Amino acid sequence: MSAILSTATAPWDVERVRRDFPILDQQVHGYPLAYLDNAATTQKPRVVLDTLEHYYRHDNANVHRGVHLLAERATGDFEAARESVRRFINARSTREIVFVRGTTEAINLVASSFGQGLREGDEVILTAMEHHANIVPWQLLRERTGIVLRVLPITPAGELDLDALPGLFSTRTRLLAVTHASNALGTINPITDIVSVAREHEVPVLLDGAQAVPHLRVDVQALDCDFYAFSGHKLFGPTGIGVLYGRESMLEAMPPYQGGGEMIRTVSFEKTTFAGLPHRFEAGTPDIAGAIGLGRAIEYLEGLDWEAAMAHEARLLDHATQSLEEVPGLRIIGQARDKVALVSFVMDDVHPHDMGTILDHRGLAVRAGHHCAMPVMTYFRVPATSRASMAFYNTFEEIDRLADALRYARELLA
Ligand SMILES: Cc1ncc(COP(=O)(O)O)c(C=O)c1O
C-alpha cells in the first residue's frame, strides 16, 4: 500500500472503527453478528455506501462520451478513482490500471489476451495453492492452444515448495502466475524471492492479489510484478469492480480482450483502430458507480492508521490460532510462518458444513467448503474446511465466541 498511509502506532480503537460499518451492528439468530467471512467478501464502510447513493442520486451519467455536466462529473470521478487505485498500489501510471469485474475477470483477461501470444508447448507455471480463478483460465487456454501447465507443489505447513521452483522453468516458460496470499490457508507467499527466480529466467509474473490487498501494503513497483489482480469487494468496496494492474510495456503489447464501445478509436467495416491504455481493455459501459465506490474505499483505508490496523489483525490471528488449537479434535490446516488473518480448520467427525450451520446459529458467520481451491483440499486429504477470516474490525470477543461455539459443536456432533 502507498506510503501516504499513516505510520503512527497509536492503539487500535476497534469499537470506533466498527461504527464505520453499519452492517456489523445487528443480531443474527438472537446473537450479535460476528462476521468472520472476510476472505469471501468484506463489509463496506458508511462512506462507501453514501458515495454509491450520492453517485446515483446526483451524478449518474455515462462516462467519457458526454458533453453535459453530469457526464463530466461522472467521468471525472471515475478517472479520479483510477488515480486512487494507482496511488494505492504505487503503479507508475493510470495507463496501467484496468477496471474489470474482479480478480477472476482480471486473470481471464490476461489468459485471453497475453495468452494469444502463446503457442503449443509453451509453458505457464502455477502453484498448488491457487484459487480456481488462477487455474481454470489457464486450462481453457491450454484447450485452445496446447500450452503446458506446470505446478509448484506445497509443503505440509501450507507453504510453497520454493526449492522446486527453479526446476520448473524451461526455455518454453512464458509466465508464472501465483497467488500473493492463499484464501484457503492464509499463507503469504515470499513474492520477492519468487519474482527474482522468474527474472533470472526472464519470465513475467502475474500475482493474484485478491487476499493480499486487504491485509498487506502492496507496491507493484517494489514487487516488480508484471500483472497484479484484485477485487474491490474484498477491499471494503462494492462488488462488480476489480482491477488488473499491468506493466505498461506488457499491456501495450497485448491485443484487446473484448470488443465494443469505449475501447475503439475509429470503426469502419473494413478496419477498427483501438483506443490507448487502459481503455483498450475496457469495452462497454464500465461499472462506474463501482469504480467510484472502490476509490472511496481506498481513501477510507488511507485515512486509517494502517500499521495499527495490521498489528490488530496480527494479534487477532495469534489469538485465534491459540484458542482454536486448544479446542479438542480441531486441526488447523495451514501453519505457514507468514499468514494473513485467516484460520482454516477441520474437526474430527464433524463435517464443515454442519459446523458452519451450528456456528451460524450462534451469530458467527464463517465459511465452510473447498474455498474454490480444490487442489489444496486434495493435498491435505480433506473434502472441505471451515474458515474464519478476519478484518481489522473484528474483536477478540468474537474469536472467544468462535472457540466456545466450536467446543459446543464438538460436544453436540462428535
Ligand atoms: C485468492 C483468490 N483469487 C481469486 C478470487 C476470485 O475473486 P472474485 O470472485 O472476486 O473474482 C478469490 C475469491 O475468493 C480469491 O480468494
Descriptive overview:
- With 414 residues, the protein is α/β, with parallel strands linked by helices.
- The chain folds into two domains: 14-45 and 305-413, Aspartate Aminotransferase, domain 1; 49-302, Type I PLP-dependent aspartate aminotransferase-like (Major domain) (Aspartate Aminotransferase, domain 2, 3-Layer(aba) Sandwich), CATH 3.40.640.10.
- 36% of the residues lie in helices and 16% in strands.
- The strands form five sheets. The chain has a seven-stranded mixed β-sheet with strand order 4-10-9-8-7-5-6, sandwiched between helices. Strands 13-14-17-16 form a four-stranded antiparallel β-sheet, with helices on one face.
- β13 and β14 form a beta hairpin.
- α2 (46-59) packs antiparallel against α9 (288-302), α3 packs across α9 (288-302) and α10 (306-325) packs parallel to α13.
- It is globular.
- The model is unreliable at 1-8 (pLDDT under 50).
- The chain binds pyridoxal-5'-phosphate.
- Pyridoxal-5'-phosphate (PLP) binds next to α4.
In short:
This protein is an alpha/beta fold and 414 residues long. It folds into 2 domains: 141 residues, Aspartate Aminotransferase, domain 1 (Alpha-Beta Complex); 254 residues, Type I PLP-dependent aspartate aminotransferase-like (Major domain) (Aspartate Aminotransferase, domain 2).
User: Taking strands numbered 1, 2, ... along the chain, how are they ordered across the largest sheet?
Assistant: 4-10-9-8-7-5-6
CATH topology of the largest domain: Aspartate Aminotransferase, domain 2
Outline the low-pLDDT stretches: 1-8
How far apart are the first and last residues' alpha carbons, in Å? Answer: 44 Å
Strand content: 15-25%
Q: Which descriptor suits the 3D outline?
A: globular
Number of strands: 17
Percent of residues in helices: 25-40%
Q: What's the average pLDDT?
A: 96
- What's the number of domains? 2
What is the chain-wise order of helices and strands? HEEEHHEHEHEEHEHEEHEEHHEEHEEHEH
